[in-house]
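Internal ticket #5521
Category: modeling
Description: The requester needs a full-assembly model to guide mutagenesis choices. All entity lines are attached below as received. Residue total reported by intake: 247.
Assigned to: D.W.
Attached entities:
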Amino acid sequence: MTLTEFNDLVSTQSRKLYGYAFNILRNQEEAEDAVQEVFIKLWKLGRKTEEYNSIDALIITMTKNHCLDQLRKRKYIDAENQNEYDLTGETISSLYEAIERKETSDILHAIIAQLPENCRTIIRLREIDGFSYEEIAKITNLNINNLRVILSRARKIIKKEYLKYKDE
Amino acid sequence: MNREELNRLLKKYYEGKTSEAEELILRKFFGEKNVPAGFEAEKEIFGFYSRLKKIPGPSHDLEKRIIAGVELNPPARIA
């Protein structure tokens, strides 16, 4: 892998891997460190990376393994209620749930990415960023009725496409 | 929430006619563990939005730091 190819990979994949790591580690700093470690490991592999069919799949696996190692090494601190847990059965199962969920997330990310641009923007603003209808109207210069029509279309597409993927 | 009420709210939701308060009710409902059968897709979709909300963005210089860290570590050479 050349330095240019590597830099491209960092700029296109870092944030995705960060989200993946965050879902497992539930901590911003640790998730960032995990991504950094994975890229260092990848870079150290040098030409060995040519033995893999998909670098994207490789770095996801590396991130998953790295995060699981981190959890095994440390006591797992629940970020939300600050209770300390040993890595009990319950924690492990919630961890695997997180990994399962990640597949659903990939599907939904892909569906949203393929929406028409106006649908995508409004879904992000309303469902993810949580802006009010009034604020979205201001941001997009649409009146509230129009943006509700677009939102309706987007919500229906997301469900329909999601069911289609799930059935496959 | 009973099934009838849930169906009524979801119908409004898909028509883009729910109020902000009603959407909050739906979000909370699908965030609970036991969601009745037949609403699996909504549970996944609402869950997805909630999880995205909960993930704080990484530092703006994440990529820069990765590249900087990597420059200190030369790649393996194949003999």
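Resolution: model delivered.
Comment from assignee: The mean pLDDT of chain B is 88.
Ticket closed.
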